């Protein structure tokens, strides 16, 4: 059996940062990163943006250059799915039946696109991996029209990129405006305007009833004839390995403390697959963002090296729709009211800040477009539990 000191399952930001955190803190011995992905670690954010628009190629989105892996003495095994975890035996089994032993393990298995639960839903394209993005890009080459099902960030970004390629694109979603259920109606108006600026149509209040080759049928009875259908209806954490091993989950995510320790000895989890205790918030916060996966991975690797580390930063992300970047910092687990400020000059799709407040008026989030001073202030206000400057 192959033995490792630190075994990391995954190849996203949580995985690579875990390796870095371990080495940066004098973690010694053999570090092995095992991933089901066919490609060496790469960045996902460009998949729905530059790469889909054809502005960057697969070779330009490496998460780290090969020299980084050599310098840090981190081995990467691609195309290798881990199928079982035995926490008592400190080992995992891969799809070809090989066992790999570990002293410490980091589960950084991320998430997969949730299936579209309608007849024909299994025939549509989804977007999570580089292979998905290349398949979508190829399909877009021969397409005149596309429907993107779902108005989350990945759906909006992909739709804007398809439109930028000259594909006539419609986003179909149940919300009256994109993201309005989660982020409120003011945010929804801005996202609707950003989609419009990017040349995308938004079909509101629409539930997809079925998909068949060349068409999408809505519950209103309307059928849209289309060349390309993409579903972006949310993600499902890849927590099956942990669940089968008896590790504690909550709502499908692996529960970890602020040092990323799971309920099993010497097993850590980080990134989209985890719900981590945030020391500043004082509660578990599930996140689905690049920077948070990166931060949590670093904490897991540091803790695996035996050095105290905890996750205490405010979560957040940036999303780029067309050529406009919206920045968000928030605990992300709810708010009581919002305060919308467009500074009196601009309309939907132009610069704005939306402050998210709890019932005591404490800032719990901020969404901004071209208001970097508000975005920067927001992180400290959220961290310190202070009111918004409104
Ligand atoms: C198209 C797209 C655009 C995005 N844009 C943004 C953005 O602009 N800003 C932002 O903040 N976030 C963005 N995100 C989200 C961000 O990419 C994720 O939050 C982040 O990648 C999560 O990192 P992770 O390390 O937890 O997992 P992932 O990056 O999902 O990596 C998990 C890895 O684990 C592997 N794996 C899973 N199960 C197994 C197994 N059993 N055996 C072996 N390997 C396994 C998978 O193959 C995968 O490579 C985007 C995501 C996508 C898909």
Automatic annotation (TrEMBL):
<keyword id="KW-0274">FAD</keyword>
<feature type="domain" description="FAD/NAD(P)-binding">
    <location>
        <begin position="5"/>
        <end position="297"/>
    </location>
</feature>
<protein>
    <submittedName>
        <fullName>Pyridine nucleotide-disulfide oxidoreductase</fullName>
    </submittedName>
</protein>
<dbReference type="InterPro" id="IPR050446">
    <property type="entry name" value="FAD-oxidoreductase/Apoptosis"/>
</dbReference>
<dbReference type="InterPro" id="IPR023753">
    <property type="entry name" value="FAD/NAD-binding_dom"/>
</dbReference>
<dbReference type="Pfam" id="PF07992">
    <property type="entry name" value="Pyr_redox_2"/>
</dbReference>
<keyword id="KW-0560">Oxidoreductase</keyword>
<dbReference type="InterPro" id="IPR036188">
    <property type="entry name" value="FAD/NAD-bd_sf"/>
</dbReference>
<dbReference type="InterPro" id="IPR016156">
    <property type="entry name" value="FAD/NAD-linked_Rdtase_dimer_sf"/>
</dbReference>
<keyword id="KW-0285">Flavoprotein</keyword>
